[in-house]
Amino acid sequence: MDRLSDALLQYHDRSKHRVNRYAPGPHELDWIAQPNPFREFHGAPRVNLLLAADTFHTRYNEVRCGALPSAYGIDLRNLSILFELSLGLSAWKSYRATRWALRCNPSSGNLHPTEGYLVCPHLPGLPAGIYHYLSRDHLLERRAAVDDSRWITAFGGNGVLVGISSIHWREAWKYGTRAWRYCQHDCGHAIAAVSYVAAALGWQTRLLEAPADDEVARLLGLDRSDDFGTAERESPDVLLWVGHPDGRPDIERMLTASDAAAWYGCANQLSANQVRWPDIDSIRLATIKSRTTELSAACAERRPLPAAPALDLSFAQVARQRRSAVDFDGTTSITSAAFFAMLECLMTRSDTPPWNVLVSPAAVHPALLVHRVDGLEAGLYVLVRNPEALSSLQTSMRPEWLWEKTGPDHLPLYFLLPFDLRASAKLISCHQNIAADSCFALGMLTRFVSAMQEPWRYRHLLWECGMLGHTLYLEAEAAGVRATGIGCFFDDEMHALLGLNDHAWQSLYHFTVGGAVDDQRLSSEPPYERQG
Ligand SMILES: Cc1cc2nc3c(=O)[nH]c(=O)nc-3n(C[C@H](O)[C@H](O)[C@H](O)COP(=O)(O)O)c2cc1C
């Protein structure tokens, strides 16, 4: 094993929660050092985005079926919708003297390590440049003005780039070593959130596989030490192409064109003091990505459409009302038809969000602990999202599992064990009731050895998990139930349940879906005071 794979394995095992010992974290929370959830660049010119999502009528069911509207123009108004419904605020909540914002994208502990950027040519209402999105005020901060003829041609088609970065300290402040994993999950949720809104606008989204992390950092201005000073740095995550599917952005050309750009703004300090987590430094370094070749999308098989959800909601409503359940009633059930439709939405389709983003084949397979799905026996199921994984999963798990194909013919769902798994689900999820009182809970099995061979792929696996989770969040809302991401789980308890004895397969994220019980003590206010 080489040095990087070794560092990755060490981090992965050290960041596991165990029944008798949680992963290293702060012993108590230093409230004085709590990081500001909003990054801003003081001195950067600001462009107010419009609050136009109310005028936007695409239906959620059309988006999930890939029946996308004709492409909207790429202009300030429609980019405003893109940001508002993906990374924008969805409400302000308060309880007694405490007030906090919720966003369309979820985040572990609501700490929001994810930052969003826009890289665009000159567009109606928006000059060419590199912008940072400030969700608190729904505006763009112009970090760089680019005036170079090569900039326009570098986009290679009608579209823009959305960049994502993470401030690991925001999560590490509360969660210590395991926080880095949560940052990657959150990034996956953000990728999915962007791709869903883009699709609702008739645009396609594609994750650019080739760029190296240092190229992403350079393009987004994350490597500009003087602009950050002592402020917390951002780690480059990903560039997404958003627009016409044929767009071929040339990042090297963009970088050359941006060399002479005028840069504006200095990053705000988020925290009074920062604690170093050596495990996070080590995994960050082990998973740095260098330049690779751009992959072209494999021709995905055509799949049947998922059945319509129980509620026919507009896309904007689903995106805004998405919430994490904090408690489930322990009685609600869903129909097997609704369950199968949700699972169908987890299957990859090349033109349907969020799976249009990825060119590589599905690498994450949900192991489902079904508690209350009408017409379906309670027990353990696995959705094998990529047929090539089937035999490896079968040989890696307990030999006594049934592996009985169940559900609609086209859905690669297998029934492994009839059993009431509520107590196991709760135990595995760090004793959280939400995993037992729901209709079903799940762990996301990933082919971990692929990450061991190329450590940067660990990040991609965690992103794919976040993308699956995001689909479940939206699907749950449309089905009239609610979901919650579960980052806190005892990794090896899940592996023991399944009979996984080595690192070939690891569960990297958990989820739960059921009938939510709202916390009546909280008050809610609209996300933005200004109109339009
Ligand atoms: C990666 C991730 C891990 C999470 N883990 C848990 C968890 O273990 N338990 C829980 O109750 N909520 C969990 N959540 C839900 C967050 O607490 C929730 O997203 C956050 O408070 C914001 O609320 P919202 O989703 O309603 O916008 C998780 C969310 C994410 C994205």
Automatic annotation (TrEMBL):
Q: Please name the Gene3D superfamilies in this protein's record.
A: NADH Oxidase (3.40.109.10)
Domain Nitroreductase residue range list: 105-224, 381-514
Q: A Pfam family for this UniProt protein?
A: Nitroreductase
Q: Which domain of life is it from?
A: Bacteria
Q: Name one GO molecular function term.
A: oxidoreductase activity
List, alphabetically, the InterPro entries matched.
Nitroreductase, Nitroreductase-like
Query: What's this protein's name?
Result: Nitroreductase family protein
Q: Which organism is it from?
A: Caballeronia terrestris
